[in-house]
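Entry 14. Ran structure prediction on the chain below.
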Amino acid sequence: MLVRNSINKSIAKHTQEINGVLIANVDIIKYLGTYLTSELSRRDTLKARSKQAIRNAKGLISFINKIKMHWKIAKLIYTMEEWATLAQNKTKVKKAAGELHQLPETDTESFALREENEE
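Output, structure tokens:
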């Protein structure tokens, strides 16, 4: 634990012994994601968080580039449903066209054909 005297701003550089265990003073420790320094500055914490943010951004960019192919596949799968719908509509249109072709000729059509044959 870092303890600072409010009057004397510096921390002595020495080791302590507690229950036979030698404990050395350090300049920086990390506690709950925050770097605590002997000067109690936030510079090291900000620097570490900036590096981590840059590392995360680089990882995110590479992840997006890798997943791009998956989006292309998803788009194809989505459009396949549209293809099936279009195929069904195409068969319906062909069926309707076949039914129209089987209808008897109207008077105007037969009249136009007769005029062409007479010429």
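The helical segments are 43-102, 107-118. Will compare against last week's run tomorrow.
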